[in-house]
Structure to design on (88 residues):
């Protein structure tokens, strides 16, 4: 398995997080860590998640699949961000 850190911006709508979790479950994605917090306006939330991907699965595939969910505004793979590696 390979570990990846993703950051998503999603609408604060009922079922938005559930749709993401269903996608993870159906693709065999294991969630190691999850943090969800609303932005200042309350219209959007930031979801930071650390996932383990099965062999043969790429983070690019997952980012594309997440981007197709109607409530997701953006997805960024932050696996190699320096601040995350340093634990800041």
């Amino acid at each position: 398995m390979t570990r990846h850190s993703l950051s998503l911006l999603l609408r604060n709508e009922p079922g938005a997080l559930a749709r993401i979790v269903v996608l993870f479950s159906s693709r065999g994605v294991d969630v190691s860590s999850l943090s969800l917090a609303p932005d200042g306006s309350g219209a959007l939330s930031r979801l930071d998640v650390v996932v383990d991907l099965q062999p043969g699965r790429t983070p690019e595939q997952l980012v594309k699949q997440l981007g197709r969910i109607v409530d997701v505004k953006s997805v960024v793979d932050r696996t190699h961000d320096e601040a995350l590696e340093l634990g800041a």
Q: What stands out?
A: The chain has one domain: 2-82. The radius of gyration is 13 Å. The first helix runs from residue 16 to 26. The first strand starts at residue 2 and ends at 11.
